[in-house]
Amino acid sequence: MLRFTGQGVQKVLPKAKALQGPPSGSGVVKSETGGAIAGDWGSAAQGAATAPRALSIGARSAGRSMQRPGGLSGDWDAPTAKASTSAPASLPPKPKSGGAKPPTVKEWDQEFDWGADAHEGSEGQKEGRDAEWSAEEWQAWEQQQPPAKVRKVGKAAPARPPQSMPMGDAPVTPGAPKQRASKTRNEQQIRDEKPDWASRCTIDAAKPGQPQRLTVSMAETDLGDEDISEWCDWMDRRLTADNPEALRPQMGGKARFKATTIDFAENKLTIAGIKSLCTLLEKYGIRCEVLRLTGNNLGNEAVRCVAKYLTSASQAPATELHLSRNKVTPEGVKWLLASLAMHPAYPIWNNDTQRYIPLWIRIENAKVKGELGYAALESACSSFNMSVCLGEESGDAKCGPKQCVNGGCCDELKHNCSAHLCMWKQPDGAVPLPSPSAHARPIFAPAGRAALKALPSGVIDPVRDEPRVIYEDDDLAVVFKPAGWSCLPDPKGVDPKWARLKPLVRRQQVAEFMSQSGNAAIQAWLLLHFGANSACEASRCQASDRGLAHRLDADTSGPVLVGKTIAGYDHARKQVALGLIKDYIALVHGSFSTDRGECRAPIDTSTYADTKRVRVDASGQSASTVWEAIAEYESPDRQEKYTLVHLRMVTQRTQQIRVHMQYLGHPLVGDKLYGTGDVPAWCPRLFLHKSRIGFFNTSGETCVESCSLHSSPELWKALGRLRKVGGMAMMGCGAPGL
User: What is the pTM of this model?
Assistant: First the structure.
């Protein structure tokens, strides 16, 4: 058969009539006629609207509702790689001289009911119980098929759902045995490049339904940063050669590779080397029971890379972390704890004990011992609304990597004790660390520094709330941005002369912005608030965007990082590039079948300048959002269901949360761009609230600022109009609801 593509007319193979069961980690969708379609479908470049996105969480695909059966957790694979199809269980009849004509394309479409949006050609396989066909037999078979319909230039062909191949196989064409032999030779050649490394790093064959097992034992090999970079390149090629589908994103938090221990202890790794290693581990979704990095030269920025890897999925990538004998300071320990706090994967759910277990951490060195280290723990628990277990004993039982005997950690309810810091001791006379409490409680805590300020004189019923400063030092500030304030660059109407106005006149100008009908520019408020201070030159500099280091949508509330000085602005921009801790709260339509999951669908932002929208597309940038369900709600008439979700942004793409939730089939309430277009009367705006931001300040101190739902009273009141029916916030959290 022929198929018309953007690169011309291509010759493709026919579709198989029956498809085999799914490869490990894949979902299964059954056609209306009962045929099983295996593998994971992405939106691909044909358009997100037509690609089925059936998920275990009950997402609705375009055109027909399809659900992944069996209660498997998570969502389906995002389309960052070419999809392929599972091996067919049977083949069309082998062509014989004068024999029956093989099934036509129309018959195939009737069998699998692809619908009106199908391509006029698709790839297939000829593997199965029968002997392989020769090239001449395939050519004879193809000559009997109707020619592919070629669409007029300029009109895009509608998208047939991409097919997916069984793990480790390539499309079978004449000469395929040679390709498989070549694949084996390539693997051996890569291993032979580094025989010593190959003996320390092995890849076992995958068992059905299980991840491939790895052995990585690179301790005491005198590896420096250049060596580990070379090792990562070598291992990258090995993983790809051993498993051609290794780069296809594995959705739902399921690991494709797993190791008992990943050991790089007693080497010479610094920030550059650990960044290369963590990038490789993230790239392939590699998990392990123990990550051992003891005895290297890792500082606080290296801890940031390790923390990013540990928080990159909805299931913990490691259950033990060893960082002793490095150069980590108490601020590095605080950053690690801040990253674990409130994350959907922590504390770790243990299927054997049916309990949530804190991450086991060994991180002893001279800089974090004694009172200084314990003071850092006290500060972390207070600032991050979390708890840390130092290891306890109860009779013959004691805390370990797979159990915690702390009384507050022994309940099935998810708690906020995210880390075991074994070998740490409470100094004599020190205040004990707080006991574990409900994981979701900080979301509904009092507003604190983000509480509403007194209105300027003359303002009675403002259209929007005034921004307020919730953190400030000599160089940086964190400003809570209410909804209705725009972060778009180069706003009009911002007058530099405002910096010289008297305080009362500046307050009157703020009052005008709070009362105007259209969105107000946050840069105008920054100039009015900081501009009169001679030390805050960034607020008077238009080239520095008045100090604003990153952006939030106008309809979204939450904290933003601001530079007060030029040096502070440059530092803030660097922090944004290195990665901030960013947590969000959203109310979405529908309910989920799992407590947590992740979405790794790539996002194409090329359409944003023209449409102010982004889209999920295979050509876009990689994007990852981890989420967990906090509370379930329904409308007072019980006709509509909603879920309050907490989300951690692993990547930072434009409108990432909004488009990912739409992709999962759960658009945000009040979202006119990605939702149904209907805004319920009980919700005055888009229900999206940024609840946390974390960064290192210019002194190297870990700073994390939280803004609970109380800091956006309109969202709090909206939840209070709904009926609360389930979720972890039902007990001990103070969540609003009828």
Answer: 0.76
